[in-house]
Amino acid sequence: MAPTTPDTNQRTAGELLPLVGGAGNITSVAHCMTRLRLGVRDRARVQDDAVRAHPAVLGVVEDGDTYQIVLGPGRAARVTRWFEQLVEAAPVTVSGTVPGTVSGTVPVTADALAERGAALRADRTQRNATPFKRLLRRIAAVFVPLIPALIGCGLIAGLNGLLVNSGRLPGITPALGAMASAFLALLAVFVGVNTAKEFGGTPVIGGAVAAVVVFPGVTEISAFGQRLSPGQGGVLGALGAALLATAIERWCRRWVPESVDVLLTPTLTILLTGLVTVYGLMFVAGEVSSAIGRGADLLLASTGAFAGLVLGGLFLPLVMLGLHQALIPLHTTLIDQQGYTVLLPVLAMAGAGQVGAAIAVFVRLRGNRTIRATIRSALPAGFVGVGEPLIYGVSLPLGRPFVTACVGGAAGGAFVGLFSMLGTKVGSTAIGPSGWALFPLVQGNRGFGVTVAVYGGGLVVGYLAGFLTTYFFGFTSQSLKELNTDPTPDPDPTPEPARA
Fold first, then answer.
1. Among 21, 105, 266, 484, which is least packed, fewest CB within 10 Å?
2. Catalytic site residue from 32, 153, 252, 406
3. 292 and 155 within one domain
């Protein structure tokens, strides 16, 4: 095989991209030792013959939903790096204008609100395409795949706790404890694998350097005058180690000759990253992780009601701005460190405010059957923590009800935060669920019954505050009149009698 240069690899990526349907046809990009692995949206847009005929392509393999282009060792990683950059740099255009809140339009249908919501969502996506927010989304993408396992292990841990406290099934509780704890014990490894995968490194190398963080043998190592302990630095240490490994690996891919790439690149990557991890990163990440735990406890213990008010009230706007993704590593750090995150139940109150606001809209708009039908179909999802149908289909396009929903979230957050000030912690053993779906996952320091009661009380307060503020302040008299005009025709109109 002829030697290649960075320009050759870049040109190869640029030539292959249109042959597989362009950036819009790509759903995922990865690589192994010899292949560029692509997820394609529309298989019919891939030009097989042209791909196979490309001088850099050694063959094509299809494995399920993955379209794999064989490029050879060394070259596959280099071409993948350029390919990812081309896909990420492809422009995303959003057509149309973004209308504001409902005003002066009669009649207003559920479809019209849905169109406004879709336009607002598209505008948010476009505005969130900043380097910082893209970084937040990529970091969130590291942790989101872990959520199913966190939920499963959290539920098993809750079940095991109930059995242990009641003294039932003593023969099975050790097995349940192992199932619930094993994933958390190795959480750093999974974070390392996902980080490398997301940022363009080799996933197994990311896992290898992150495994150093939880390896029991680190107790023989001293850094900054202290003995290291297994797990020191937690998921933040694993994230940092995998990011560093990805950077070193990509540097090696540029400079190491392809003939020895398969030997030198992984060796240098693991060696250099491992040394930095054990002699610096674990200690620094450990201090940061401890500070996050202390800070969350102090925040809710000393200013719980006010902190809950702010967090619960601002969470929906944070979601709109895409900044809520920055909280995912914090939640995961708290779960890894303390067994649960005390922030999530407070933030979940935003969903309660949203549900209360939607119910008030339903009551106030008795004359608009289409909007009421939308709310009726979306409310069950809202009760179990899926708020997007209500946000983008009802409250956000209406305007004021979105603000009053935030007020409801603030009230519910203040309620939960107040009990934290009084010494009753309410946490969640997993991230992802909210609303009623969070009940099986709540955990605290006062027992399951008390914890569930406080969380349930917060939901009720959020529902009531969202309902009352929306009912009384969610509409102007003019908008209420316009929105209550039923846009659906009478299916069997009765003709008016002729007038003399």
1. 105
2. 32
3. yes
